[in-house]
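Q: Here's a chain of 377 amino acids. Please give me its 3D structure as tokens.
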Amino acid sequence: MKIKRKHQLDFFRGVFLIIITFDHFLTDNNAIKRFTYEFVGWITAAEGFVFLSGLTAGIIYSYKYSEKGYSFINSASRNRAWIIYKYHIVVFLISLILIISIKSYAHYWQKEFSCLIDYPLVTSILGIFLIYKPNVFDILPMYALFVLFIPLVISSLHKGYYWRILLVSCLLYAAGNMNRYFRITDYLVGNENINIGYFDVLCWQLLFVLGLLSGFLYYTGKTKALQQNKSLFYASVAVVVISFAVKNAHIDLKYGFDYLINKPTLGPLRIVNFTALVFMFVFIATKKETWFTTKAMCVLGKYSLEVFSFHILLMIIFRPIKEYFNHFYSIRISEHFYIYPFGTLMLFLVVLPALFLVPLLMKRRMASAPPAPAKVS
């Protein structure tokens, strides 16, 4: 079955990229971030980005597996992982140079990237080998690792091993939670220069695998009834509404609730909350195929790897400048939240427009590239 590009997937990836940029750029006490970070419950754009990456890969690689076989998708996944790795390394090294060469940047980023600043040579080597992955620099390595396992998962799904794949993924998820609970990795590593990242790969692979499974089922036409199930839609709306209410009511919940909503280990309640929100939008998108296709968002989503990589550089460059403006002038609106006019203007007038330069440059690059040689049959 031939597949056409699904613009709604590009749209949502574009939206998630915008939200991620908001959340990475704004300070926690900025009133705007109150509506972009965990507003509809215990969900962030990161969950959506990982799941959509798996969903898109599930559709595309299922098609390629059916048309060209395992060897082709195995080679394609290795090439894709290598491209992701190269983007990560280039962004990491450019960021390193900027931070250690500009004194004001080094001062601002000291808290988050102290090892990077104090031991640039060691951390750059560790970073190349993906052993040092500080905040923001851990998403792309995790994504590259997931991509390497796509052929194994897709070929297993085509053989009908749905439950085996889910069982293995759930066991890995459980292992990741045990690791975080007993801090096994911390005892094994024992070196401040080694940073394996904020996200637990063993836990977050579950979201990517669920995306792959969903993409495979969509490609094989096994999701049509589910996409239009009204009972599931109403149940999903109920879960989202309850999650929104509890999250924003700031109810003092009992000890142990933190585990259920823990972000690094992708707590169970986060999964339920996210799954409900996904199904809610899937139901609407199925009914309204022309919705969620805004061109600007679709363009960002189409070049999600390049846009995400560039947004990291924008954070490194503009966040210290934004912080200066925040200190210069702010408006207090409550005990915990402020409005920062100048920093917010920088976000809307400089950072967000800069994201749209990436698709423009990519299109020009592709247009100027020499045509591929004709294949001889």
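Q: Can you summarize the key feature?
A: The chain is about 70% helix and 0% strand.
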